[in-house]
Amino acid sequence: MKITIQVLIEGTDALPLTVPIQTIHRSCDRVEEVGTLTAEAKSILKGLEESVVRRQLAEYLAAKRSCPHCQRSRAIKGYHPLRFRSPYGDVSLRSPRWYRCACEAATGRIKA
Fold it and tell me: Do the Cβ atoms of 29 and 44 come closer than 8 Å?
């Protein structure tokens, strides 16, 4: 038997995204083999948490990329690593560093 665990992520402005979490291959020859093993359950939860965190962060960063004053998209200087700690394990992420917008430099207003 093959069981595939997937997450369906639906946003307000994007098409639904299906993210596979884990596939379990197992025959069910004995009653003891019914259900998920502890290691499989932990792996499923870790994959679920990672998918949710990555999608939420991507949505958050997309909303924050535009300049708060003129709404133009700011250019990216580079990235630095982040580690999000959760009960199911750490998630390694990349956090962008943005250049200031020209209107921020001209007015001296800086708002993060």
Answer: no
Task: State both tokens at 43.
Answer: 């792996």
Question: Structure tokens of 57?
Answer: 């962060």
Amino acid, res. 60: Y
* 5: nearest Cα among 16, 17, 20: 20
| pLDDT tens-digit profile, the chain (112 residues) | 888 999 998 877 778 888 889 998 888 788 877 888 888 889 999 999 999 999 888 888 888 888 888 888 999 999 999 999 988 889 999 989 988 888 876 555 555 4
As given in the structure block, the two tokens for residue 11 are: 């946003």
Tokens 């949505």 appear where? Answer: 59
**Long-range CB contacts (< 8 A, 24+ apart) of 33-42?**
42/88
Angstrom distance (rounded) from CA 7 to CA 20:
6
State the pTM of this model: 0.73
